[in-house]
Queue: 3 jobs
Job 1
Amino acid sequence: MTNLEIEAKVIRIVEKVLNKEPVEDDTVELKSKWPEETQKAARQIAAHANSSRGVPIIWIIGLDEKEGLVGANKEEVSNWYNAVKSCFDEGICPNLDRCLNVPFLENTVIALLFETDRVPYVIKNVAGGQITREVPWRKGNSTDSARRSDLIKILSPIQLSPVFETVHGSVSLADLDHQGKKKRFEVRLVLYVTPRTKDLIVIPYHRCKGKIIFSSESEINLDKITLNAPMRFTGGGIVQDSLTVQHTYNEIVISGPGTLTLEAKAEVEDIQDIDDINIIEAKISIKHDVESEIPVILTPNFIRANTEHSRESARWVLKQ
């Protein structure tokens, strides 16, 4: 995730908390303040990382679903993280990849992005006793010791999710009738995909979902999402132009790093205040593996662009 994607995700979560909406994201943990009990914090981080099975997790300090937006500072993050790391067996701890200040209104929250690609994570029992180590596991919002079935989930081979980089993209709005009441949003992204496995990756379109978000209270679900290999015009017509990415009517097949396009549409009626919408966020879920519990999530942001010489009613381009 880029810093911009992390910040956009955190802001969206802050808005949900302030609007008293549930935060339904298994990759996120909210804390009203820096955890003072180092051992407890280490156990919770280990449990969260183990249950995520390789997907990065985000801890937001200064935000709580009950207390709301409290705010925090990151003056002591280095000392705090080193103390937490000391609780992990053999020094193997989720890597603190990013620590970001995210301002919101008059407060600032701290976003901690942990990499979890070295599961399982084991915690030392600093209190002593016969049980010297534990593999924590997260169930809902609680932390428990991993059961055998949980360990199998950690240790069983999983198809690592490919990495999708958003190169450029746009969201356009066009009128479908003369009155301008019926409109169609079109989302188009150019992505560069890098597999993290030598196995062939097949993504059926029916496992891809998405929506465009105008604010915390306004969003529209996208219709069928398609992923396409790059195309090239030749004397014989249009052909797919990639050695590593190919598509059919129902799926895309990826054998190595390459470029692809993502397209989706949504038809709406009587959308209000379209001229006041300057920023749009798209949230695209791509589930490549039917066994995977957590899909790849793309959250590009778009800003309004000039449509003076265009047939489009409105247009937004990727915010860099």
Job 2
Amino acid sequence: MTTPQATTLREARITIVGLGLMGGSLAGALKARHPCQHVSGVVRQRETARLALARGLVDQVSTELAPAVAEADMVILATPVRTILELLPQVGQLARPGCVVMDLGSTKAAVVQAMLALPAHVQPVGGHPMCGKETSGLDAAEPDLYQGRVFVLTPLQRTGSEALGLAEELVEAVGGRPLVMEAARHDWLVSVISHLPYLLACGLVGTAEQVSQRDDAVWTLAASGFRDTSRLAASDVTMMLDTLLTNRDMVLDALAICDVHLQRLANLVRNGDAEGLSMALTAMRERRERMFR
């Protein structure tokens, strides 16, 4: 097991690959709070590089992966999940001994499995901050995005305590609350509270669109209730496509459970069962209120 060269965040040179909403927000938080020695970014577009420097989100930015990774004590992959899976082998070959390789992907089992193949001199830690917005890209980045938010960490058996400690220190430095969790457990839980809501929002928009073919006044009548419940349908499609396809079985299980509840409510409405419907709706209302007090 290779010990990280930087044993504290203060000593670390950090490279963030991908400066969209998540990566850009992380870079901005690190620059604003100054917990580490140096922050570099890797992007594909020169305009993104220019904007990141102009906003003071990074000390240095490159469109080339190799030099930025080779100089880093910690590399954080902040791209869609399938891109993370493609980048991991490259990063593993470029990273210096003791480098901590972390990701911000919204599913973890596939990423952790891919991290198993990283060279022995690299220290892997999976990560997923439980925050975000339906907007994407560097323009949407906010240095306070992680403030007060749970940030799941999914270490491997080979992950050393020093590497995990460095990851936890990073999370706390940007205002997050680290929570260590097994990757499969994480993926099941987020399939219910993140991936399922996205699909339901898409289904709602699809339903309204079908109705609008007969009467387009549906869009005129749509107000705050429709806007709030359909908000997630505006999420970045590339990110969500990767999320759904790398967590397919658990998303399908969550959809099946949801369908049971929808069918139960449909039967109560169909039967005109006012008492049963009231009890079901009240129970859900009270549970929701307890969650967000």
Job 3
Amino acid sequence: MVTTVEVATEADRSVLAQLRHAWTGEVQPGDDDAGFADQFTSWMDAQQGWRTFWVAREGERPVGMVNLLVIQRMPRPHLPSGGWGYLGNLFVLPDHRRRGVATLLVEALLARAADGGLERVITHPGERSLPFWRRSAFGEAQDLFVWAP
């Protein structure tokens, strides 16, 4: 089956919520939240203009997602403002992993980042996904500081 990757639309909100719920079920099995769909919709409303979401589908079935948060740098005299991107929430359903779906999602996101003139895209991978990221176009960074209370 051919995998397609498209920018998510308003009609995909429930699809994104379902994929996020599936991801949560992997890391916290049995944790059901009846109000999650409403919470997710409110969160998406607040993200308008900051994030772009992509959905991967095999046929009509949604099988993965990713999003890009754009952080615009403050402009300086004689230089454009530029910006960074944060790649977040890359997720592919378990039965579709290791088929190139994650790679297609990341490639679509990076194409948008390049078209948008972003200077870099960062991500914070989980331990389980490190092999994927080490095979990707991303490299480990030494120049970031993190505050984690």
